[in-house]
Design a protein that fits this description.
With 338 residues, the chain is α/β, with parallel strands linked by helices. Strands 7-6-5-8-9-10 form a six-stranded parallel sheet, with helices on both faces. It has a four-stranded parallel sheet with strand order 1-2-3-4, with helices on both faces. The protein starts with 8 loop residues before the first helix and ends in a 10-residue tail after the last helix. The longest helix is centred in the middle third of the chain and has 21 residues. The chain folds into two domains: 116 residues, no CATH class; 196 residues, Glycogen Phosphorylase B (Rossmann fold), CATH 3.40.50.
């Protein structure tokens, strides 16, 4: 997965050999299993093409995690209509978009809908982290891919260091590591920023770190939904390469980059993109969330409905039920085996 887990237009070019090998192996598996249902999960850059190949081989296709049709426009909707038998949706608002185009789809909800604040778990985690009663904990979530971590970690650390240096209360900082942080720290610039702050290096579930936090700085993505559902005030950041940004800026049509803001229907959490995602801006927004009760309260109220909007508990079970129901249908032109 790591070899093909790339984001952005320019980043793909260096990984084309690995991506082609992965694609070829999946095609061979589809050819070897004529009764298989192809279940691509997310990653539309790879999977929309594979869905077309699967259909050309006579395989049925159930696409889990609808590619971001609300950001990228009608092209992806047409691909779903042509090449996918059923699309399973994480977000309710996607249902209306696909229904208008006659695309078979079923809303199953998002796993983050099951998350809720847990005061007893919070106290337990803060004790395990060594966070004292008078201390504030800032959690940094720079992303799960190495490219993201390299771009986000230094400004996040810089912003947190500014808050820690100038806050009246003692501020502790923890970095959530989904795997790439150790490699990112090998870079001298990242290592200097890390050594200046000496944050807690959290290698366990990021959601547990969020449960212990008083505020968070979060790279745009699913983590913003988890942070909102757990009722942690957040600053959303995103940086990418210049070419990726210029292409995306011309193609993507959404009012917010943060999924939490998109689902909530407004700019609830501040978003710092590209040149705005620097230590001074991150630190200023973070300090506001730690010191200003009105700012904290407004954000928490704005995100209070997130779990309900995501479908509450049971999204994985609903997805499994939808797949089982689909698998039980007899495809056109085939007879059910005895």
């Amino acid at each position: 997965m790591e070899s093909v887990a790339v984001m952005g237009f320019a980043s793909i070019l260096g990984r084309l050999p690995e991506i082609r090998r992965a694609r070829g192996e999946i095609v061979r598996l589809l050819e070897a299993h004529p009764e298989a249902i192809f279940l691509p999960i997310d990653s539309p850059g790879l999977h929309l093409g594979l869905a077309r190949t699967a259909r050309s081989l006579g395989r049925r296709v159930v696409y889990y995690v609808c590619p971001q049709i609300w950001a990228w426009g009608g092209g992806r909707i047409r691909r779903l209509k042509q090449d996918v038998d059923l699309t399973l949706l994480l977000f309710r608002f996607e249902s209306e978009l696909l229904a208008k185009e006659g695309v078979p789809a079923r809303w199953v909800g998002h796993p983050a809908g099951a998350l809720r604040p847990d005061p007893s778990r919070r106290a337990e985690l803060r004790k395990a982290l060594g966070i004292g009663p008078g201390e504030r904990l800032v959690s940094l979530l720079p992303g799960s891919r190495l490219e993201e971590v390299r771009r986000h970690l230094v400004p996040m650390l810089d912003g947190a260091a500014r808050v820690a240096a100038h806050s009246g209360a003692r501020v502790r900082v923890a970095v959530s590591d989904a795997g790439p942080v150790d490699e990112a720290i090998r870079d001298p610039v990242v290592r200097r920023a890390w050594s200046a702050l000496l944050p807690i290096h959290w290698r366990e579930d990021a959601k547990d770190l969020l449960r212990a936090a008083d505020a968070a700085v979060v790279a745009s993505g699913t983590a913003t939904l988890e942070t909102a559902a757990l009722q942690v005030p957040q600053v959303i950041v995103y940086r990418t390469g210049w070419l990726n940004y210029e292409i995306a800026r011309r193609l993507v049509r959404v009012p917010s980059i943060g999924l939490a803001n998109l689902v909530a229907g407004g700019k609830i959490a501040p978003e710092l993109i590209q040149g705005q995602a620097v230590g001074s801006r991150i630190g200023a927004e973070l300090a506001k969330l730690l010191a200003d009760d009105a700012a904290r309260g407004a954000q928490l109220r704005g995100f209070a409905s997130i779990p309900e909007r995501l479908g509450g508990e049971g999204s994985a079970g609903r997805a499994a039920e939808a797949l089982i129901e689909f698998a039980g249908r007899v495809p056109a032109g085939r007879k059910r085996c005895a």
